[in-house]
Specification:
Oligomer: single chain
CATH architecture of the largest domain: Orthogonal Bundle
Distance between the termini: 40 Å
Largest sheet: none
Number of strands: 0
Structural class: mainly alpha
Number of domains: 2
Order of helices and strands: HHHHHHHHHHHHHHH
CATH class of the largest domain: Mainly Alpha
Shape: globular
Strand content: under 5%
CATH superfamily of the largest domain: Farnesyl Diphosphate Synthase
CATH topology of the largest domain: Farnesyl Diphosphate Synthase
């Protein structure tokens, strides 16, 4: 397994599985596009374990295995070695090890992502938004900080919190998009405090439809959408700190999710009944506007 083979594998993962992120990643120049693909592929592997069909104990063991891989990867990076067998035999690790040599990627952030996926497996619920916020930073803010290592910036101390904030915005959008699907899988991410505020329980009938009064649910979703907007407003302050192509990549990713958020807020009843998404043509328009600097 050569490094080139590893990058090609990671780029295939992005093409096949990154239905939203791919539109931004493809705007990057080749070396950075490959590095972003390696980051996404390893993050996707961890996320897939957390959402997998295996019993919780098995998934926790698999996540522990990912943590061991991360330790090996960090050790290899510390010695600037990529030739040990555990990396050579795994295309994603081979590519990620090379990425970590080329760019100041904070590999320890993957450990936080694993922490968040472990919380998923254990079925953690959240009493307040302050309880939910660390989880959002673990599963999405980490990807923002990892990406920033590839993008590069001359203002890292100011840029890192903004990359983290943009990740929080994207995760809040994911949560709103997946309320029904997550509930069917026994998960509730919306804070219990917010549910109580709007008199909602997220109970479902035998068909999977929510039994709470529709207007209460609509108000709840719009409240959460307004919170997500504030995180986009904060996170998008990152764009002027990036070079043109990195800013375009970020604007495309954020733009797709932000438009999805607005669709959910406009028609919450539909979002609560099915999994909303943007059509591919609209994603392409957002990416094109991001490249010209008109998507902000």
């Amino acid at each position: 397994m050569t490094v080139s083979d590893g990058y090609q594998h990671c780029e295939r993962v992005v093409r096949d599985q990154a239905r939203n992120f791919a539109y931004g990643i493809r705007l990057m120049p080749g070396p950075k596009r490959r590095a972003m693909s390696a980051i996404y592929a390893f993050a996707r592997r961890i996320d897939d374990i957390g959402d997998g069909p295996e019993p919780p104990g098995v998934r926790l063991d698999l996540l522990a295995g990912s943590r061991t891989q991360l330790t090996v990867l960090r050790d290899a990076h510390g010695r600037r070695r990529t030739g040990i067998s555990v990396l050579e035999d795994d295309p994603v690790l081979a590519a990620l090890a090379d990425t970590a040599v080329r760019y100041p990627v904070p590999l320890e952030a993957f450990g936080e992502l694993i922490d968040g996926c472990e919380a998923d497996v254990r079925g953690t619920e959240y009493g307040t938004f302050e309880d939910l916020l660390p989880y959002c930073r673990q599963v999405a803010g980490t990807v923002g900080r990892l990406s920033l290592g590839v993008f590069g910036t001359d203002r890292p101390l100011k840029a890192e919190p903004l990359a983290d904030a943009l990740g929080v915005a994207l995760q809040l959008t994911n949560i709103l998009r997946d309320v029904r699907e997550d509930r069917l899988n026994g998960r509730i991410y919306l804070p219990a405090e917010d549910l109580a505020k709007f008199g909602c329980t997220l109970a479902q009938d035998e068909t999977g439809r929510f039994t709470d009064p529709p207007q209460r649910l609509n108000d709840l979703i719009r409240f959460e959408a307004a919170r997500a907007r504030s995180w986009y407003d904060e996170g998008l302050r990152l764009l002027p700190m990036l070079d043109r192509r990195s800013a375009a990549c970020t604007a495309a990713m954020a733009g797709i999710y932000r438009r999805l958020l607005e669709r959910i807020a406009d028609r919450p009843s539909i979002a609560l009944d099915s999994r909303m998404s943007l059509p591919n043509w609209q994603k392409a328009v957002v990416a094109a506007r991001a490249l010209t600097g008109t998507e902000r």
